[in-house]
Amino acid sequence: MFRKILIANRGEVAVRIIRSCREMGIPTVSVYSEADVNSLHVSLATESYCIGPKESAKSYLNVQAIIATALLSGADAIHPGYGFLSENADFADICKAHGICFIGPSGDVIRRMGDKAQARATMANKKIPITPGTGIIKDIKEAKKFCKKIGYPVIIKATAGGGGKGMRIVNEEKELEENMSLCQTEAQSFFGNPDVYIEKYLQNPRHIEVQILADKKGNVIQLGERDCSIQRRHQKLVEETPSPGVNKAVREKLAKTAIEVVKAVQYEGVGTIEFLLDKDNNFYFMEMNTRLQVEHGISEMISNVDIVREQVCIAAGLPLSVKQSDIKLQGHAIECRINAEDPDKNFMPMAGVIKGYNAPGGFGVRVDSHVYSDYEIPPYYDSLISKLICWAPTRQQAIRKMYRALKEYAIVGTKTTIPFYQMLIEDAVFISGKFDTGFIEDFCMRYADK
Ligand code: MV4
Fold this sequence. Notes:
By secondary structure, this protein is an alpha+beta fold. The chain folds into three domains: 5-103, Rossmann fold, CATH 3.40.50.20; 132-200, 2-Layer Sandwich (Dna Ligase, domain 1); 206-449, D-amino Acid Aminotransferase, Chain A, domain 1. Helices cover 34% and strands 25% of the residues. It has an eight-stranded antiparallel beta sheet with strand order 13-12-9-10-11-14-21-19, with helices on both faces. A five-stranded parallel beta sheet has the order 3-2-1-4-5. Strands 7-6-8 form a three-stranded antiparallel beta sheet. A hairpin with a 2-residue loop joins strand 10 (220-232) and strand 11 (235-241). Helix 4 (89-97) runs antiparallel to helix 5 (107-114). It is globular and about 60 Å long. The chain starts with a strand and ends with a helix. It binds ligand MV4. The site of ligand MV4 has 15 residues, from strand 8.
């Protein structure tokens, strides 16, 4: 097992990782920017080092500073969390070159899954369903021919993209050329790679993802599906497991397909396979995330598997601590991502001091957060300040518990999205479970009228 683990991240995910490491008796090293000197991940770690000024590029993305800190502190592994360097294949390679274990898949696997067109081709070769589409496409004549064949609307995506950035929906042929070149320009500036591909656009699908864990001895398990359809501008807001839109037959097929994806890629580590589910219960591989996800906690609640602990054990070459036959997915878990944003001002990020703080508690309530009374929220990073997760035996009871917890959650001194969720969690469409990726647009209109 590792002598010492450096967490190359901040905020709630750094706290989350430190917690599992401490339970495993592994000393931790945290790194922080000058703006995070009072952050919780600094005080909770065994050792902590300032690695640069407030700008992420000079701190949490500063590869040299992170590697140097690992070497000087004697950390023999680095956990990247999510975001920042967590899916940076070059960083994974650099860790390896310095004899430091990157807690995640190899640089090559990160690179392959990060190339969305290549990932799709890999899945198609293994007969895993993908949305009808092209590979990398540059020639407008070829693009027009393809779109004419599958019919509009189509969606253009950057192969080096993901998570919705730089994609465009095209409803008719005359818009195709301009949108293709816009996507190529954006892809080049966002991701340094102009290559795009085209898919048949599915109208308001559900966004369903499957949590998988694969060790280095060929053992693979899955922890069921998460429904992440409630997103605003590609930012997930509410996630739940199991999905109210997935029936038993689809659930079993999703699980089987997810395992096939893992084997197709010979994946090792913790990962998430994202699918789009259409109204006719057909699902299609969209992309594979090779990192720990923000919403991993709801899968932990229904499976009793500590995903971070398993991730560390896999990286250390140990077998998974559970077999699929040991796992009994129980109950229902819902997560609300609490952001320091003003929902009445178009979710504008809010910095400022938390003057009063009281987190909810009680049976089935989990708060993954790094904030506390008197904590100053820095304006330089993601606005996520807390993840409120509620578990109960049934979806109805989990909704009731979430409502109670949201009413109890006191954060004074800055605007947060708590009031927004208090409305959402008692919305009839949400409660019905009959929602898709179009939900938030309708709900925000209803919310604005309140
Ligand atoms: C799609 C899609 C419909 N059809 N692809 C890709 C990134 C992920 N965050 C959302 N993505 C989508 N890909 C096909 N072929 C619908 C989504 C999608 C979405 C797209 C545009 C605007 C908002 C969206 C919210 C969820 C899913």
